[in-house]
# Entry
Amino acid sequence: MNQHRPEIDGATRTFWAAAAEGRLLGSRCRDCGDLTSHPRGFCPSCWSDDVEDVDLSGRATLHTYSVVRANPMPPFVDLVPYVAAIVELSEGPRLATRLVDVDPDDPDGIAIGMALTARFEETAPGEGLVLFGPAG
# Structure
């Protein structure tokens, strides 16, 4: 466990709790079928409030990234340099995350389109982060 805890509220509590259990949770609209990368109380496509939590595979590809070398804001100041990324989940939605198990200074070790899998870091009892690292 560490001090890098997410902001948790009623709408996101199930997402962070699932991450602490090693699961990636999404949200599916029962009206239009839209799938989002994190649970919320409504569908961002049709605004229906008939949504359900669903487990996602944790498989993704790297859509885009940036190596962050300076960030004075806690808790990120202790992480620099780190790789901020947008990943495209195999189910379709995109998710903002941080890459782990990569060297931010190795330009050949990170590539758009690379296969990734979810990694989970418990931040406090019942709370966790969803991070991604190279598949395999």
Summary: The mean pLDDT is 91. The chain has one domain: 13-134. The first strand starts at residue 24 and ends at 29. The helical segments are 13-20.
